[in-house]
Every structure is written in structure tokens, then in C-alpha cells.
Amino acid sequence: MSVEVFNEFLNPYGLSVSKILVILCAFLVIYFIRKKLLDFIGSNLAKIESLKKYSAEILDSIRKSLEIIFIVINIDLTIYIYNDYRVMQEYEVYFTIIYTILITLIMYTTVNTIADIKLKNIGSEDKRIKNEVINVSMKLLNFFIWIVGGLVILHILGVELTAVISGLGIGGLAVALASKDSLANFFGTLSILFSDVFSQGDWIEVDGKEGTVVEIGLRVTKLRTFDNALIAIPNAVLANKDVKNYNKRTLGRRIKMNIGIKYDSKKEDIKTAVEEIYKMLDQHSGIATVNTKFDYAQHAKKARVIHSKDDQEGVKKTLLVYLDSFGDSSINILVYCFSKTVLWREWLEVKQDVMFQIMEILEKNSLEFAFPSLSLYHENEANLEGK
After folding, report:
1. For residue 328, what pLDDT band results from cuts at 50, 70 and 90?
2. CATH code matching the domain that covers 253-364, chosen among 3.40.50.2000, 3.40.980.20, 2.60.34.10, 3.30.70.100
3. Looking at domain 185-245, does it have CATH number 3.40.50.20?
């Protein structure tokens, strides 16, 4: 069959052999360009030192959006060729909007992928930047990206952006007055970030609520309580409350106990037990003492004047063992010290070992734990009868 026969068959559909060949060639050219573009992006990402080892991950995140763009380009070119190489204005505006949305999506995905990589490696690569600062910054940047994308789409649709932007002045004031609580929360977020009172992952207690900081957002801070509930506290409220941060300590978690022994215990036995408990704690590998070494230089913050290194870095080494008080039913020995670790599980292990050793010391010195008791004394029965 000749080309004319094919053309006769295709003409009723607005096609021809030459158009089909051009369309196929366009598909091949676009496929080749797509492959080369992906290689080009990957090689250039690899040249950026800070992104070199993450170039493959970044490329994978935008690959799908890029492929969709090339599919849309194929469709656009096919319509252009089908229409005898003339642009169909009624469709072109929709294609432009689709391109804008996809480019905005690529920017959004790229920025967030880089941010996720940064957050994953922030502990090992750059301890100067707080991960919650990156998190909040990314939310603001994402908002800006989508706002710009939306304005571009409005421009494509023929909306006069000058009028829109100028209207933001008056409208912005009205919105600000209507959303003063949201603005207060936003400034509360800035206050929290710059004050460095707590960070994501810290164990804090505020206004009777206690838990681990899950996220410091633009509006609220989320706490995960120890019974696995989630609490959202507005940042405006949180910025004006007293916050107790249990993570702002690097060495020393308190162990405090009152050991009650019976009143019939011998003075020398008590004195020996107090001395032996102190000696045991002073030599315990898990208890902080004045001889415990701590690298202040590693933790010191250069931007601040440090009046007390221990208070600045959260270091406690106090060790006290004293006969403390005469209780209602016991003689009380005060044990007050700090474990080297600040982690709960390790602290419990140290505390348990200390308690076992105290039990051994008391047993060795013939001392017994006291318990609440009440003694009743009756007068002599004979005296009672004589009255």
C-alpha cells in the first residue's frame, strides 16, 4: 500500500503519515532529552559538596514530577502537530497551568527532601543548627512556594496581580485583627526558638502537663505524654509559662532517699553505717562526685557569659550522707547524690544497685529498717486497783 492510500484512510481523522512520523520523532526526541536532563541534574547535584552523597535521593524525589512534565509536553506537542502546527489557544492556558503546578511541586519536593536530609543528619554534621528551626523555616518556605505558584496561576488566568497585591495592604490589616491569636502564636514560636529553653525531643513539664516535645510548629507545640497521649499547647501560651526542662542537664540525675532505722539501734552501728554508705557512693562507678571529670569546653556556648559552669551545663556532683532526723517511728538517714547518667533507664539501674548495697551495709551493721508503729504503755494494774 502506498502513502496516498494511508493518507486517504487517515485524513477523515485529521491525520496523515507525515504527522504520525513527526509525532513519533517528537516522542523519541523528548525521551532522549528527558534522559539527558535527568543525567545532567544528577551530575550537577553531585558537584555540590554538601549534597554530593544525597544527590541520588534528591533526584529520586523529583523524578516522578519531571516524568509527568515530559508526558504533558508530549501531549501538548501531539495536539500542536495534529492542529497543523498551530497553537490551540483554548487548550494552551490549561497546559501552562499544569506546567506551573508541576514546577511548583518540583520546587516543593526538592526543598523538603533537602530539609529532611538535613534533619536526619543534623546531629552528626552540624550541631549549631537546631532541627526545629529548620522545621519551622521549611513550613514558612513551603507556604511562600505555594503562594508564588498560586499568584502565577492567577496571572495566567488573567487576574490583575497589581490590584491583588495592593489589596493585601487593607485586607492584611483586617486579617491581622481577625487572627490576632494566630499572630500571637507565631511570635510565640519565634520566642521559643530564639530562647533555647527547650528543643524537639526534650522532656519538659509546663502548667501541669508533662511529656516529650514531638514538634514545635508555627502555631502549637506538641507533647507526647508518658501514657502515650498527644497534647497540643498554643505557642503564645507556652512562651509565657514556666517550663521545667529535664533534658537541660548533662551530668547528674538526683537520687534522694530517707532511710529509717529502728530506735533500738546502737549509736556506733548507725555511725559506721553512715560512713560506709558515704564511702560506697563515693566509689560507685555510676555516682557523680567532686572527682568526676567533665569536658566543659565541649559543651560551653561561646555566645554566653558563664557565671557557673555547673549550672550552665547542668552538672551536679553533690554527695551527702547524714543522720538527718528523729522521726515518729524511726531514726532517719538522708542519702542525697546524683547519678552520672541522666537517662531514666540507666538512672534506675544505678539507683537499684545503690539500694541493694545500702541494704547489705545495714545488714552487716545489725541495723533493721523501721516501719510505722505505735507503742501502748499500760499503768501497773495494782496501782489501778488501789485508786
Report:
1. confident
2. 3.30.70.100
3. no
